[in-house]
Amino acid sequence: MSLLEVDAINTFYGEAHALFDVSMRIEPHEVVALLGRNGAGKTTTLKTMMGVMAPKSGAIRFNGAPIGGLPPYKIARLGLQLVPEERRIIGGLTVEENIVLAGLSEPKPWPPQRVYDMFPRLGERRRSRGRELSGGEQQMLAIARALVREPQLILLDEPFEGLAPLIVQDLLGICRRLADEGRTIVIVEQNVEAALSLAQRCYILNNGHVVYEGTPGDLRGDPDFMHRHLGI
Ligand SMILES: Nc1ncnc2c1ncn2[C@@H]1O[C@H](COP(=O)(O)OP(=O)(O)OP(=O)(O)O)[C@@H](O)[C@H]1O
Ligand SMILES: [Mg+2]
User: Fold this and answer.
1) Relative to the CA of 41, which ligand 1 atom is closest?
2) How many domains, in total, are found in the chain?
3) Residue 39 sits in a domain of what CATH number?
4) 195 and 213 in a common domain
5) Are 99 and 59 members of one domain?
6) C-beta of 38 in contact with ligand 1 (< 6 A)
7) Is the same domain home to 64 and 132?
8) Which among 42, 161, 191 is the best mutation to test ligand 1's pocket, defined by most ligand atoms within 8 Å of the CB?
9) Whole-model pTM above 0.85?
10) Which of 103, 131, 150 is at the close of a domain?
C-alpha cells in the first residue's frame, strides 16, 4: 500500500478548473519531486493533499484511509504536514516560541533541543523574533515546525525560493539528511536540479495535467521534454 494515493482528483478555484484527473502515488521513505512551469498546478496539488482545498471529484487516501475533503487539522493529525511557500512564521514570537507552539497539539512533540541539533543556526537564534530572521532562517524554522509534529509525510512548497545559492546549499543538505533518515517528502521546486538531486521519482504537471512520471535519470535523458515542460 502506498503512503499517499491521489486518484484522479479534480480541483477548482470557483469556476476555474485547476487540476484535471491528477493521480499520484507516494511510497514510504521516498522523496518525490513535483515539477512544472508557473501556474501548472503544483501548489494546488499540495493544498488538495493537505485539505486546504477540497477536490470536486476523485479520491485521496493516506495509509489507505480516505482523506479527501477532510479539514487540514484532521489531515495534519493523521501525519501530513505542509510547509507552505509563504512560510507563515509568527513574526512577533521567538524562534523557540514558534517551535513550542507548533508542537502544542501533539502528544509527543520534538523538544526544541532536537530542532537545534538538526538546525544549529536556529539554536543560535532561539531568542530572536521570527521577523528578525533571514529568509534562509525562516525557511529552516518553517521546516522545523513541521518536523516537531513528527509527520509521516512532509510537503515542501518551493523551500529554496528567493534564497541565495549558499543558503540553498545549506537547506539542500538538511533536506538530504531528512531523506537519508528515511522521511517521506514531496518537494515542489523551480530549482529543478536541486529537486532532482534529492528525488527518487518525479512528476511533471502541465496546465493541471500530469504529463510525466518517472525517475530523474529517465527525465534527464529527454532534454527536449525537459525544455518543453520545465523551460530548462
Ligand atoms: N486563488 C486562486 N484563485 C483562482 N485561481 C488560482 C488561484 N490560485 C491559483 N490559481 C490558478 O490555478 C492554476 C494552478 O496554480 P498553482 O498555484 O497551483 O500553480 P503552481 O504550479 O504552484 O505555480 P507557481 O510555480 O507559480 O507557484 C493556475 O492557473 C492559477 O492561475
Ligand atoms: Mg506554486
Assistant:
1) 18
2) 2
3) 3.40.50.300
4) yes
5) no
6) yes
7) no
8) 42
9) yes
10) 150
What is the spatial distance between Cα 115 and Cα 102, in angstroms, rounded to a whole number?
12
For 11-48, the pLDDT digits (tens) are 999 999 999 999 999 999 999 999 999 999 999 999 99
Please indicate whether residue 148, judged by its CB atom, sits closer than 6 Å to ligand 1.
no
Neighbours of ion ligand 2 (CB under 5 A): 42-43
Rounded Cα gap, residues 99 and 96, in angstroms: 5
- What is the mean pLDDT of the segment spanning 174-185? 95
The C-alpha atoms of residue 79 and residue 166 are separated, in whole angstroms, by 31
Residue numbers of the domain that contains 45: 1-79+153-232
Going by CA atoms, what residue is nearest to atom 7 of ligand 1?
A: 13
DSSP per-residue codes, 143-194: HHHHHTT--SEEEEESTTTT--HHHHHHHHHHHHHHHHTT-EEEEE-S-HHH
174 and 65 both lie in a single domain:
yes
Q: What is the pLDDT of residue 105?
A: 87
